[in-house]
Design goal:
By secondary structure, this protein is α/β, with parallel strands linked by helices. The protein has eight helices and twelve strands.
Length: 233
């Protein structure tokens, strides 16, 4: 498995009133196949995940993916790290399903016929083979999320970062997408509010108020997060 290492000073974002700290200094090394990150909205968990492929740059310190510095070689890191957003609409930009996957493959497969064939094979693999020529706008919410995942996984990343990928889904599709994610060969960094899904991971990191509040056993981590949520209610 790849190693994701955080050695970052405070991450800040600009506001009209000056920089605001969104993540306190963090030192963290992740080597497990399936790591979940949980926390309340605004806690900093998505910021932590987005540091991994440079969507949020560190203000100082370093983030490494298998020894490669995200700030110094973002291109190499992004070839290793795929990112899936909460809302698949942020990723689905082409008219049909097959065209969308082809777009993901454009840098990896230069021949158009081979790229089209590969895209259809990817869709078949993820249960969307019958929807290859269907408009992405005609898909259900679950199908859109599966298509977004298929497009990312088509590039064969070594790490997949998924930022709340089941938040917009119904129960059946939440289970379907969750099973897909937890069955991947790639290392998974999963930001989620689904505590049942988090407990199925190998390690859980709890983020609260921009800091690491707990890191370790999934069941114990989820229990700690529940205690934090109860104390804040």
């Amino acid at each position: 498995m790849p190693t994701i290492a955080f050695d970052a000073a405070a991450v800040t974002v600009p506001t009209p009133h000056g920089d605001r700290v969104v993540l306190e200094p963090v030192s963290l090394t992740l080597t497990e196949p399936r790591v979940a990150v949980v926390g309340a909205n605004g806690s900093g968990k998505s910021t932590l995940a987005r540091l991994v492929n440079g969507l949020v740059p560190v203000t100082s310190g370093r983030v490494l993916v298998d020894g490669v510095d995200v700030a110094r070689d973002a291109g190499a890191v992004r070839r290793m790290v795929g990112f899936c957003f909460t809302d698949p609409a942020a990723q689905l930009v082409m008219p049909t399903c097959v065209e969308d996957v082809e777009l993901s493959l454009r840098r990896h497969v230069k021949d158009k016929k081979e790229r089209a064939a590969r895209a259809r094979a990817v869709l078949e693999q993820h249960g969307l083979g019958d929807h290859a020529d269907v408009s992405v706008h005609a898909l259900s919410g679950g199908q859109k999320q599966l298509l977004a995942l298929a497009g990312v996984l088509a590039t064969e990343p070594r790490v997949l970062v998924a930022d709340e990928p089941t938040t917009l889904l119904d129960l059946a599709n939440t289970r379907r997408v969750g099973d897909l994610l937890l069955g991947l060969e790639q290392q998974l960094l999963l930001v989620t509010h689904d505590l049942d899904l988090a407990e199925r991971c190998d390690r859980v990191v709890v983020v609260a108020d921009g800091r690491i509040a707990f890191d370790g056993d999934p069941v114990a981590a989820v229990a700690h997060y529940r205690d934090l949520a109860s104390a804040d209610s």
